Q: What sequence folds into this?
């Protein structure tokens, strides 16, 4: 038997899965807010309770609403004015890595890793991406057989996640929306990713253009 | 998630035009044994996978296997969408993949046990055909082979 969580109620009404619980949380946190085990447990209890429903389909609503100041989706680059670039990106990454190391020491975990490039080599990732933007070729051995557009996205993802983990050390109580505004509005990486996206969008390679959408919007 | 009617026009249009299956009814199944004696597994569309596994590619309709003894530190998220903020996942994997909450339920005797594996796909696909016709049936077979009674589906 299946039970599921719904984020877009209108889609679930069309799909008609047997048992679904609609939740009012933003994209990215369907089980509730991070580090709130009580809320997460209430969601899990409510969704598993649907197993006892005799008739299907059943679509229940979880009580609650977005938290004050919370938006349903992530703040995007297009909603924030980019910072003037005053720092060398590689130097900024090195600074962020020092905070990131505190995060990994503290949490015992990192979500950095999809590119398979170790963070100690992220200055090289920056030079790789900067070379691409200039139309030059530079190779990182971790790319292996991965198509270039995807590898660029994985590198961009890892840099962004490193910054977000660093920010959790700098401002542990900051709202997610403010963290995104900081990232897109105050960091050199946020500005650079817009440029990277634009260069990818100008490519004749369809995969490169489609991957640009995952770099910045 | 706010209802579509409350979202900005551009995002509402994107979601309204997304291909969604329209079904007339739902498959009916009955739990073979009480939840306290049942085995549960997660299937998530959050694009999660083990560190070292191939990340999800652009519009990737495949799946990844996550051993149920994998720790949060072993798991990454390579979902290509920027519509959600990864900060929540970074802080606490349970926001999309509630392994700690399920472990509590097993310890309390409310769930019989956790299957040997969980499974992950990537949502937000513009074309669901391969996911529906190939990936989902294969996942169903694997879950039956894993002797799983209850599947918890989580999005992101």
A:
């Amino acid at each position: 038997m299946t039970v599921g969580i719904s984020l877009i109620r209108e889609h679930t009404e069309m799909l008609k899965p047997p048992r679904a619980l609609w939740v009012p949380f933003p994209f990215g946190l369907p089980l509730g807010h991070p580090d709130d085990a009580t809320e997460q447990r209430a969601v899990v209890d409510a969704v598993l309770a649907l197993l006892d429903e005799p008739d299907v389909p059943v679509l229940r609503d979880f009580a609650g609403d977005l938290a004050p100041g919370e938006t349903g989706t992530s703040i995007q680059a297009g909603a924030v004015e980019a910072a003037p670039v005053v720092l060398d990106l590689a130097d900024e990454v090195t600074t962020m890595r020092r905070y990131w190391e505190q995060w990994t020491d503290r949490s015992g975990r990192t979500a950095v890793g999809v590119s398979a490039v170790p963070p100690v080599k992220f200055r090289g990732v920056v030079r790789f991406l900067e070379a691409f933007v200039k139309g030059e070729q530079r190779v990182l051995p971790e790319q292996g057989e991965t198509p270039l557009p995807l590898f660029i996205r994985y590198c961009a993802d890892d840099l962004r996640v490193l910054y977000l983990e660093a920010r959790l050390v700098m401002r542990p109580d900051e709202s997610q929306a403010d963290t995104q505004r900081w990232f897109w509005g105050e960091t050199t990486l946020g500005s650079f990713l817009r440029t990277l996206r634009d260069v990818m969008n100008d490519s004749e390679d369809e995969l490169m253009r489609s991957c640009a959408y995952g770099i910045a919007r | 998630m706010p209802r579509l009617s409350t979202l900005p026009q551009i995002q509402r249009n994107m979601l309204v035009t997304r291909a969604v299956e329209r079904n007339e009814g739902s498959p009916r199944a009955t739990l073979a044994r009480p939840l306290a004696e049942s085995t549960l597994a997660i299937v998530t569309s959050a694009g999660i996978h083990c560190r070292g596994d191939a990340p999800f590619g652009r519009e990737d309709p495949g799946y990844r296997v996550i051993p149920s003894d994998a720790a949060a530190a072993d798991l990454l998220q390579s979902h290509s969408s920027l519509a959600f903020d990864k900060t929540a996942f970074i802080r606490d994997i349970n926001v999309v993949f509630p392994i700690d909450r399920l472990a509590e339920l097993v310890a309390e005797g409310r769930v019989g046990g956790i299957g040997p594996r969980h499974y992950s796909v990537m949502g937000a696909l513009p074309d669901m055909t391969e996911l529906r016709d190939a990936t989902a049936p294969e996942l169903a077979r694997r879950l039956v082979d894993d002797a799983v009674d209850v599947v918890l589906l989580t999005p992101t």
Notes: Chain B has four helices and seven strands. The longest strand of chain B covers residues 39-44.
